[in-house]
Amino acid sequence: MAPAMAIQSIVDEQETEYQKGVKQLYEKGIKKLPRKYILPSHERPNITSNNGHQHQYQAPKDFATKNGGIKQNIQLPVIDFAELQGPNRAQVLKSLANACENYGFFQVVNHNIGDGVISDMIDVGTRFFGLPFEERSKYMSANMKAPVRYGTSFNQNKDNVFCWRDFLKLMCQPLPDVLPHWPSSPQDFRKSAATYAKDTKHLFVMLMEAILESLSPAPETAAFPTADGEVVDEMEKELMEGGSQLMVVNCYPPCPEPDLTLGMPPHSDYGFLTLLLQDDVAGLQIQHNDKWVTVDPIPNAFVVNVGDHLEVIFSNGRYKSVLHRVLTNQSRNRISVASLHSLPFEYTVRPWPKLISEQNPQRYRDTDFATFLQYISSCEPKRKNFLESRKIC
Hints:
Belongs to the iron/ascorbate-dependent oxidoreductase family. The chain is globular, with a radius of gyration of 21 Å. A hairpin with a 5-residue loop joins strand 1 (about 45-50) and strand 2. By secondary structure, the chain is an alpha+beta fold. About 40% of the residues are buried. The protein has helices at about 5-20, 20-25, 80-85, 90-100, 115-130, 135, 175-180, 190-215, 235-240, 310, 370-380, 385-390; strands at about 45-50, 55, 75, 80, 105-110, 150, 165-170, 245-250, 265, 275-280, 285-290, 290-295, 300-305, 325, 335-340.
């Protein structure tokens, strides 16, 4: 074999290995991060100290429980769901509006989703990624509309540099139609994941009632129906009664050189709201006041973030979808479950008419999910590029 052909053969073989995911690489016991995963120096994780200087990020042995020196943490606004349903609703709505405007993130506690439902979802997710690759690979697909899809990185077909992450994506609506396509192993996966999907859908609906109420220009134009029987807009009906739900189970194995790569790159979520469940290993960072800060997990709480749809629909830019990313660490496996909720895939996304006026003109072009899929299929998605592409100058 000619030298050039031999080199190409080695490159092709390596590329095939990378497509199998980072769990495979970790299980092989690699000590050095392959070049495919090494970010350019200006894109690598770093921490800003109090004096404003940039420091290269060094993940501590167990940064779920240690401060890691210069690592900065943030206490997100906490929304008590029980208080939201009680006599203090008006005050909690103000806190919710503040969180969506100034953070784009908040944590929800006392949400009525049972501890058993949460622990079962983390457990079956962990066991799925513990299956042999041959079993996991059954669900690999290049079809982004497939009801179930196993893969690696962020967008493995377009990423020039891979992320240290494997994932399992599950379409959740309509549940009776998609459930037979979900993994049948572990044996209790479908039952646990379906219960979790239904419970998070209900929580999403309740949170959206509150968010729409917090956005309402005035009480007499309340966004959600009240006891007076006010009319609900078509978009609100679609969001509450139908809508899309995508569940993503993420696996971040220990990484040999976490200072050179990311679990996920800076990005915003395309949908309306994302409800994120984390295990006890920290890793999520959000961009706040131009700094990257780490969100410490609260046991059994949900981290909720504003998606691009909420920034565009209803809020017309008032509530912000914020950039976030995921760090890796050297010693502990991390599992998270993201439940992304939005309008039906075929629905046209546009700002809420009630918030459009001469003083507050429309800031985004109408769009739909097909346009989004075409965008991410044609380029490497980064940061908030898609949303920026829809802005009206």
